[in-house]
Amino acid sequence: MPFSRSRRPARGPAPVILFCCFLAAAARPLDAQPATESQPNRLNVLFILCDDHRFDCLGAAGHPFLETPHLDALADSGTRLTSAYVTTSLCSPSRASILTGQYAHNHHVIDNYHEVDPNLRFFPQDLQAAGYQTAFIGKWHMGGDDDQPQRGFDHWISFKGQGTYWPDGHGTTREVPQTTYDGLNINGQRVKQNGYITDELTDYAEDWLNQLDPDRPFFLYVSHKAVHADFVPADRHRGRYDDQPLPITIPSDETLHRGAIPMWVRNQRNSRHGADFGYNLADFDPAVYYRRYCESLLAVDDGVGRLMQCLHSIGAADNTLVIYMGDNGFQFGDHGLIDKRTAYEASAKVPLLFHAPGRVPAGKEFDGLVAGIDIAPTILQATGSKPMTSIDGTSFWTPLCQADASPLADRTLLYEYYWERNYPHTPTLHAVLGGRYKYIRCHGLWDKDELYDLQTDPDELVNLIDAPEHQNRVAEMNRRLWEMLGQTDGMEVPLLEDRGPRFPWRHPDKTDAAEFHDDYFHRSEPPRRP
């Protein structure tokens, strides 16, 4: 059987000691192969998605003060994937890529305001077809403000748009676009939100786990609102990090100019998504904002501990694949920017943890290049379900279980972001991810492309695009970019009608507009005929 039921867990934060049982279970020898349909005990799956969780905000990743004991325990008893990215760093496109296995140019969810194509197939539909009990609990936000039940899920709990941290809005310093106070949609019925959303979603997830049919496998997708801006910690956590410094160095404009960083990046510094005029607030302080962000993550970590405790109490701990992932990263002054959308590491790289006792190695780090588009095929292989067709991602289940990243050694991934009229300072971007170097191409704007050596310049502050010794590499990565676009039907820029508010403003007393790069003033001579 998928699991044997025992007692119902008690509510409340889970002590870290209660998670120790998972460490022992995960330490058994790795002799299991990836699941197949013929195996009687098919893996259950708990997939936890955290909003805007950047890759380095994790105790297990060496964070200087953030406390994430339950996520750290998950990493210790499983595998932490250290080269995990999203292929579009924006809420709705990233979520659509996770569910469909497709790049944004194929699923066409390229902003946060348009509904998803009703003909797109989501991988939970394949789990349903394989006999799984399925549930979605949390933030849907895959285009528009719709929170109606979606295909692939037997049980449904969500809210419109961004929802809200607290039903009375307390703790909020500004209203985020698409904030709603309409409560929850539970299987098509409107139900009021009673408390702090992170805790309440965990409550509902526990309730669903405790009423499952133990003779059938399950798939539970918990999608947190946290830690989306505006960051509102649980009352029990507010102020915990008031005395902590910002561990990110915000580069000066001179540093960016000296590093040949594109003009659009430097100009964005004085904008809604810039460190000088963040969210169009004249007194914006990235350090304060970062502290609230870290405090908001604490309840997510509590929730992970509670759900792991619940799996143990219902007898499902040893046969459940637990995945924790961020839907995109977040910038806190990196490159002088805040928020996301860019192809830089702080924006596009995410935490990704896999835990499956006896299948996924315990206490390991896996450096193979993986992305959100790979989640669907990986889960389907792990559960022995029929694979999806017409997808861009690939399963990494076998390399992960074998602790062997070599099959992914030469892999490259496409990153894409499409210009939004709502936030006009970030242009359409394409990038090649994978290996030591990252190549970023700016589309539709007179500016520099980018090449970074992630080994010597992990903060991506020295643009090598014009370096003579790298011109062959630039040409090859540009060729690879167009090859990937051609192979994945990405040669046309997807367009959608304008929707939502616009935020084009600059502050008259903040950073001046960037000057043109020096080489713009030196015309290259055309070749002469002999």
UniProtKB/TrEMBL annotation:
Chain ranges of the Sulfatase N-terminal domain: 44-384
InterPro entries from the UniProt entry: Alkaline_phosphatase_core_sf, Sulfatase_CS, Sulfatase_N
Record keywords: Glycoprotein, Hydrolase, Signal
Domain of life from the UniProt record: Bacteria
EC number from the UniProt entry: 3.1.6.1
Gene Ontology MF terms in the entry: arylsulfatase activity
Signal peptide positions on this chain: 1-32
Family affiliation: Belongs to the sulfatase family.
Name of the protein in question: Arylsulfatase
